[in-house]
């Protein structure tokens, strides 16, 4: 067994969760208390990590002074959905009951937030509850705006139209790929910020590989349309992905933004965002859509957002720029880096440390440097492991080998080990990213 494998196995499994953190399943609290020391809005990757880290601190021992607000009955590890869409993992492998993940030191309100009143430290839920907080953590994720593409809501999951971003259609992706007999297979990425920015093209690579395996590749015209100006933000990885597309005859169309679907004619309408503008209509036989995304509306309506709608926080400390008792991380925050689970892991440590320091009358000085990661799957057993700072645009690779090249170890890490780390460590508040291992595996920062 190699040293990287051994160390990461230990990271995932060696130290079990503290018994007091999650010993019995939590059920949603029908009547939450009216006041909490900390309210965490959102029970996704970022919110759950922070709630678990806070719950492990002695300040919250034997108390119910944390409230997590999230409407979902299930918690999803969404990075696995690319594998689900290609038939490499099952959908059930990507989810756990939310009640099993909420720390026992926390209550859980299974509802949505309709409004926040930061001047009076109040959170309003969709069912009319009013919760007072001393400190607030906003980790409510990102809205997936299917309705902003004309014809998409009624087409999704039907007649070859699918999206790995939807729990309702991700399994349809695999069904449609395997039923594909030829024609145009189109994969799209919008011009807006999205979570997991590599996912729109990853499924294109896996589909193209499956077309070769099923004998229909010669009949397939595989296209990737992106509203962005580059195939990937960081040049090191973008250059290699461009080579992958050339080698496998995947046509890349940049600044090509999907605006509408005509399901009766099986046509996709694209707007050119280049200087010449214009519109093109492309027939499709398979259409995988990544919809535009945006910040939840209540953030702007509550006076907590920047000009683009994201929670306006200091990029180093994750503390709000106006309300010092408010913090935000993950997809709904203004942190200027790629919105990924890896970023949320690194951010969670900073948010928790600075929040605890603030609660105890100090000033949080832990800083987040923009770390994020995007495992770019290019085929079964092949993956480009992009790790970088969204602040500097420079790679921050954990291993001594060149992660900008397709690699089998990186694939195993992403497909099997990292999900195990996620379920046994991150949602328990015990995994905040690979920084400590980087010094061991890549001491010379050789890449």
Describe this structure in words.
- The model is unreliable at 10-25 (pLDDT under 50).
- The chain has helices spanning 3-13, 45-55, 81-85, 152-155, 170-179, 199-213, 235-247, 297-301, 341-359, 408-424, 435-441; strands at residues 35-41, 66-69, 74-76, 95-97, 106-109, 113-117, 122-125, 130-138, 143-144, 161-162, 183-189, 220-226, 251-254, 256-262, 267-272, 279-283, 286-288, 293-294, 326-328, 371-379, 382-389.
- The protein has 447 residues and is α/β, with parallel strands linked by helices.
- Strand 11 (183-189), helix 6 (199-213) and strand 12 form a beta-alpha-beta unit.
Shape: globular
Largest sheet: 7 strands, mixed
Strand proportion, as a percent range, falls in 15-25%
Low-confidence regions: 10-25
Q: What's the helical proportion of residues?
A: 25-40%
Structural class: alpha/beta
N-C termini distance: 24 Å
Annotation field: number of helices? 11
- State Rg: 22 Å
Average pLDDT rating: 94
The total strand number stands at: 21
What is this structure's SSE topology?
Blueprint: H1 3-13, E1 35-41, H2 45-55, E2 66-69, E3 74-76, H3 81-85, E4 95-97, E5 106-109, E6 113-117, E7 122-125, E8 130-138, E9 143-144, H4 152-155, E10 161-162, H5 170-179, E11 183-189, H6 199-213, E12 220-226, H7 235-247, E13 251-254, E14 256-262, E15 267-272, E16 279-283, E17 286-288, E18 293-294, H8 297-301, E19 326-328, H9 341-359, E20 371-379, E21 382-389, H10 408-424, H11 435-441
Parallel strand pairs: 1-2, 1-8, 2-5, 8-19, 10-17, 11-12, 11-17, 12-13
Antiparallel strand pairs: 3-4, 6-7, 7-8, 9-18, 14-15, 15-16, 20-21
């Amino acid at each position: 067994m190699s040293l990287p494998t051994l160390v990461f196995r230990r990271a995932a499994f060696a130290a079990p969760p503290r018994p007091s953190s999650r010993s019995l399943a939590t059920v949603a609290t029908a009547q939450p208390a009216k006041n909490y020391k900390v309210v965490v809005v959102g029970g996704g990757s970022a919110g759950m990590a922070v709630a678990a880290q806070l719950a492990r601190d002695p300040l919250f021992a034997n108390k119910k002074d944390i409230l997590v607000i999230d409407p979902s009955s299930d918690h999803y590890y969404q990075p696995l959905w690319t594998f689900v869409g290609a038939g490499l993992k099952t959908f059930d492998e990507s989810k756990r009951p939310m009640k099993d993940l909420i720390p026992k030191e926390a209550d859980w309100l299974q509802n949505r937030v309709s409004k926040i009143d930061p001047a009076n430290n109040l959170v309003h839920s969709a069912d009319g509850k009013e919760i007072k907080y001393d400190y607030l953590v906003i980790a409510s994720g990102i809205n997936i705006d299917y309705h902003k593409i004309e014809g998409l809501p009624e087409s999704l999951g039907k007649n070859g139209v699918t999206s790995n971003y939807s729990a309702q259609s991700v399994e349809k992706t695999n069904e449609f790929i395997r039923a594909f007999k030829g024609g145009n297979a189109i994969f799209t990425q919008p011009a807006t910020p999205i979570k997991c920015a590599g996912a729109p093209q990853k499924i294109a690579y896996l589909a193209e590989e499956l077309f070769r395996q099923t004998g229909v590749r010669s009949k397939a015209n595989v296209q990737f349309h992106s509203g962005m100006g580059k195939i990937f933000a960081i040049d090191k990885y973008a250059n290699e992905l461009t080579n992958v597309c050339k080698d496998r005859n995947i046509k890349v169309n940049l600044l090509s933004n999907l605006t509408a679907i005509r399901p009766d004619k099986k046509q996709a309408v694209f707007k050119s965002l280049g200087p010449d503008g214009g519109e093109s209509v492309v027939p499709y036989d398979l259409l995988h859509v990544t919809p535009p995304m945006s910040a939840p509306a209540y953030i702007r309506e509550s006076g907590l957002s920047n000009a683009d709608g994201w929670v306006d926080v200091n990029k180093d400390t994750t503390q709000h720029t106006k309300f010092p008792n408010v913090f935000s991380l993950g997809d709904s925050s203004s942190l200027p880096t790629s919105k990924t689970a890896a970023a949320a892991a690194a951010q969670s440590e900073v948010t928790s440390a600075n929040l605890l320091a603030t609660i105890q009358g100090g000033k949080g000085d832990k800083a987040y440097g923009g770390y994020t990661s995007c495992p770019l799957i290019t085929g079964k057993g092949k993956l480009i492991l992009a790790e970088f700072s969204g602040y500097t645009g420079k790679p921050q690779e954990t291993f001594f080998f060149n992660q900008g090249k397709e690699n089998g170890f990186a694939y195993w890490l992403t497909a099997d080990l990292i999900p195990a780390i996620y379920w046994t460590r991150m949602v328990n508040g015990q995994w905040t990213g690979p920084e400590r291992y980087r010094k061991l595996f890549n001491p010379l920062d050789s890449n």
